[in-house]
Design a protein that fits this description.
Helix content: over 70%
CATH topology: Four Helix Bundle (Hemerythrin (Met), subunit A)
Bound molecules: fe (ii) ion
Low-confidence stretches: none
Order of helices and strands: HHHHH
Number of strands: 0
CATH class: Mainly Alpha
Largest sheet: none
Oligomer: single chain
Number of helices: 5
CATH architecture: Up-down Bundle
Mean pLDDT: 93
Length: 186
C-alpha cells in the first residue's frame, strides 16, 4: 500500500531560473526539504511504495549529486575568492564540504536500497529506514547552515560576472543552453 506522503513536488526546476543561479540553488534547497519529508515518510512505514522509493532514489542519485557539484566546483570556490577575512567563511565551507563527502556514502547506500525496493516491490528493511531518517536529519542541518550563512554571503559578495559564470556552468552541467544569462542581481 502506498505510503501516506506529503503532497509536495520534486518536479524539475524551470531552466530559465538558471539565469538567477542563487535563486536556482535556493529553489533546489526547497526541493531538498521536500525530499527530507518524503524520506521521513518512507522511514516511518513498514509497508512498500515502489513509486515513492523510485522517486526518492532518483532524486538523491541525480539531482542532489548535481547540486553538490554546483556547490563544490563553483559556488564555494567563488565564495572563497570573494569573501573577506572578517567573513570567516573558510571553516563553514570546510564543514559543509566534509558533510558532502560523508553524505555521499550514505546517499549511495540509500540509492541502492531504494532501487532494489522499486524493482522488487518489497518493503524497505529496518537498516535502510534508519538510514533514511538519518539522511533527512543531517540534510536538514546542512540546509539550515547553507541557507543561513552561505547563500546570504553569496548574494553580498559575488559579482555580476561571477553570477554569469555560475549560470553558464550550472546550465552546462545539466546539458542546457541558456542565452545571455546576464544576472545583475540575484
Ligand atoms: Fe546546498
Ligand atoms: Fe551542500
Amino acid at each position: 500500500m502506498p505510503v501516506d506522503r506529503p503532497r509536495e513536488s520534486l518536479d524539475p526546476l524551470p531552466a530559465g531560473l538558471l539565469r538567477q543561479p542563487l535563486d536556482y540553488l535556493m529553489a533546489d534547497h526547497h526541493r531538498q526539504r521536500v525530499l527530507c519529508r518524503l524520506a521521513d515518510a518512507l522511514a516511518a512505514t513498514s509497508g512498500s511504495d515502489p513509486d515513492l522509493a523510485r522517486t526518492v532514489g532518483a532524486f538523491i542519485s541525480r539531482d542532489m549529486a548535481i547540486h553538490v557539484i554546483d556547490e563544490e566546483q563553483d559556488l564555494f570556490p567563488l565564495l572563497r575568492r570573494r569573501a573577506s577575512l572578517e567573513d570567516a567563511i573558510d571553516a563553514v565551507l570546510g564543514r559543509l564540504a566534509a558533510e558532502h563527502s560523508s553524505g555521499s556514502a550514505l546517499a549511495a547506500r540509500i540509492g541502492q536500497a531504494l532501487d532494489e525496493a522499486a524493482l522488487t516491490g518489497r518493503p524497505l528493511d529496518r537498516s535502510t529506514r534508519l538510514d533514511l531518517a538519518e539522511f533527512a536529519r543531517s540534510e536538514r542541518e546542512h540546509l539550515a547552515l547553507e541557507n543561513a550563512v552561505v547563500m546570504p554571503l553569496a548574494r553580498l559578495r559575488l559579482t555580476a560576472g561571477d553570477l554569469r559564470a555560475l549560470s553558464l556552468r550550472m546550465a552546462a552541467r545539466r546539458g542546457l543552453l541558456i542565452d545571455d544569462p546576464g544576472p545583475t542581481a540575484a
